[in-house]
Design brief:
single chain; alpha/beta; OB fold (Dihydrolipoamide Acetyltransferase, E2P); 4 domains; 7-stranded parallel sheet; 6-stranded parallel sheet; 19 helices; 21 strands; 37% helix
């Protein structure tokens, strides 16, 4: 495609229409997900180098990360005959001392440099006799004419792909900013964003900042734009739901609810009662319910779900309850069959392994992903309940809802959701929180221990088993893999000997459903003392007599997952113990696991998990439906998310006026 004059270019023009972008560069930019000029202008630097102040090579000290500027005095590759490995070495001199730069097994690096090249070197000093950096970032100074782009300023360092030079990309973006900056319009006309740079200033400062602080101000402005865009879309979806649907009348008449609550033998907590009032108001309203129910592990969400189901069933509708695992489906089927049996309410089960079919009369249909398959019939669907929502994607949620004619939706999670995620990932849902645990629960104590203490831990565990208690022992893997990470199958025989004569059951995701039942049933009934398992037990296992949770290689799990696993104990009246065995001892691991010792507050743990791991790893980006943000940081940008919600409301009102 021929390159064209700048005035005919638009932000949505293909990037290859810019001067200098041929077929090869187009392909390289595509690997960075840059297809248009607008996407090029929004390509965020991963960091900035202040090239106004260089450190002399003589002043480098071990452990520092610094930038130096010097001249190449010698270079070459050494290949080791016996191993076949190689090292390319570049020696740079700035007049004060020499710096040795090494790249292992990268002989191709030699073609990027020649003697007497002036070169920037950025990296961590690994030694001082001689001064050394391993695999530093480098950039050759080629000409004086573009020195204003690459030198003597705060310089952006961009994410790259193979074959794409940093200097070329930086120069392309700088030229493009110069062309388009005068033409950049505010994305939210009429809305004053006080305390933020204009959109055109933000684009300028993202790529050509006078100070590093200007670049952060630009990032915050562009992050705010992203959050506003999402909140506007959330409000649009909610408006469409209200305009295009009529709620099914599912408020109920209490003919099942009253005898159900009487037979429980205990009173719901104040928090459960408050949430049930909110749900009943939704089920009786004019718009289909779209509600998120958060409650820490053991807070009684299942009871709330059961009451909500009875409201819909009283109204003549079926209820579908979707859960992520067959173990949890079996647990719920057992619980609700016991609860609803005396009420003559039918409870069905649909999983990949067993299908009992939808009930002919109003009832509760419990299932896994099998509920959203084509063959699963869900007639007269009034309410959809999704348990452990974070295990499902948004698309799966919508697929189940579409099985009916705008049924009500109740989404439940025992993994407390950080506020930024609640306002983004679940921003289209009203929120309820069960912030109170039922009475009579035992206290949980948590301890972080090293692998060296395991003999004492086994002694402690045997004491608890001798008192009649039960225990979980959790490993990260089913089978042993590379690294010092323990696995269920390799530890089972050893633990059976250590804990004899107490019986040990083994559970993992590769077992067939019938085999899982053969393991779980004796553990639920107390015949098996210890359940050796993977994280498959993080949901769906309710054994009040279990008072010990031992997790080996605890550093392999996220904090939210550790909290879920800990929630399997403390469900009875006995004092319970969660013991986290750290397979590695680093300050980062100790900091992370110590949070589990300090608190049982799931919301605090979730916030820390988000801060330490980020939303992508915490949720699983593809699974969660979480939009990917270029500039927004959900671990630190709560204030921006909250502000974006208010701004989106103003934009929404203006659009409808």
């Amino acid at each position: 495609m021929p390159h064209v004059a700048a005035p005919t270019l638009e932000l949505n023009s293909p990037v290859e229409r810019l001067y200098g972008v041929g077929a090869e560069r187009k392909a390289q930019l595509a690997r960075l997900k840059i297809f248009t000029i607008g996407e090029l202008l929004l390509h965020q630097p991963r960091r900035y180098e202040d090239r106004r102040h260089f450190v002399s090579i003589y002043d480098l000290t071990e452990g520092q990360t610094r930038t130096v500027l010097g001249r190449v005095v010698t270079l070459g590759t050494t290949t080791f005959r016996r191993s076949g490995k190689s090292v390319f070495e570049l020696v740079v001199d700035d007049g004060t001392a020499r710096l040795h730069c090494r790249w292992w097994n990268a002989p191709y690096m030699e073609r990027y440099f020649k003697q007497d090249d002036e070169v920037f070197v950025f990296g961590k000093v690994t030694a001082v006799k001689p001064r050394m950096m391993d695999h530093p970032e480098t950039e050759v100074v080629e000409s004086a004419e573009d020195a204003s782009i690459h030198m003597n300023r705060v310089v952006p360092i961009y994410p790259l792909t193979e074959g794409l030079p940093q200097r070329w990309l930086r120069a392309l973006i700088a030229r493009t900013v110069a062309i388009f900056e005068p033409r950049l319009a505010e994305p939210w006309p009429g809305v004053a964003l006080q305390g933020f740079p204009s959109f055109k200033q933000a684009i300028h400062d993202l790529h050509l900042p006078a100070e590093v602080t200007d670049a952060e101000d630009a990032r915050r402005r562009l992050a705010l734009d992203e959050f506003i865009g999402l909140q506007v879309e959330i409000r649009r979806r909610r408006r469409n739901l209200e305009a295009n649907s009529r709620a099914l009348p599912c408020g109920g008449d209490n003919r099942l609810m009253k005898p159900f609550l009487r037979q429980l033998g205990f009173q719901p907590t104040r928090a459960q009662t408050r949430v049930l009032r909110e749900i009943r108001a939704d089920l009786s309203g004019a718009v289909p319910m779209r509600r998120l129910l958060q409650g820490d592990v053991g807070s009684g969400k299942t009871l709330v779900a059961g009451c909500a189901a009875l409201m819909a069933i009283e109204s003549g509708f079926n209820v579908a309850l979707m859960v992520p695992t067959e173990i949890l489906a079996e647990q719920h089927h057992l619980t609700f069959s016991q609860w609803f049996g005396a009420l003559s309410v039918l409870v069905s089960l649909i999983t990949g392994a067993r299908k009992s079919g939808a009930p002919p009369a109003p009832g509760l249909i419990i299932g896994t992903h099998a509920l959203i398959e084509r063959g699963a019939e869900l007639p007269k669907l009034g309410l959809v309940v999704i348990d452990e929502q974070h295990k499902f994607g948004v698309a799966q949620r919508e697929k189940l809802v579409r099985k009916g004619a705008y049924p009500h939706l109740l989404v439940m999670t025992a993994t407390p959701i950080p506020r930024t995620l609640g306002l983004t990932l679940y921003g289209d849902l009203d929120a309820s929180v069960i912030d109170e645990l039922p009475a009579g629960r035992g206290r949980i104590k948590t301890f972080v221990r090293s692998a060296e203490t395991l003999p004492k831990v086994w002694t402690f565990l045997r004491e608890k088993l001798a008192q009649g208690r039960q225990a979980f022992i959790v490993y990260p893997r089913v089978e042993e893999t590379a690294g010092n990470v323990k696995a269920v199958l390799t530890e089972a025989e050893r633990l059976a000997k250590i804990l004899a004569p107490f019986s040990v059951g083994v559970l993992h995701g590769r077992l067939k459903p019938a085999d899982k039942d053969r393991v779980m049933t004796p553990f639920r009934t107390g015949k098996t003392a210890v359940l050796l398992a993977t994280s498959i037990v993080e949901v769906g296992v309710n054994v009040p007599n279990a008072s010990v949770m031992l997790i080996e290689n605890a550093e392999q799990f996220g904090l939210a997952q550790l909290h879920q696993l800990r929630g399997r104990i403390g469900r009875g009246a006995h004092e319970s113990y969660c013991i986290l065995i750290a397979g590695k001892k680093t300050p980062e691991i100790q900091e992370r696991l110590s949070i589990m010792e300090q608190t049982v507050d799931g919301f605090r743990i979730a916030e820390e998990d988000l801060r330490l791991r980020g939303p992508g790893e915490m949720l699983g980006q593809a699974q969660s439906g979480m939009p990917s943000f270029r500039f927004g940081d959900l671990a630190t940008d709560l204030e921006l998310v909250q502000r974006s919600k208010k701004i989106a409301a103003v934009i929404d009102v203006s659009a409808r006026a």
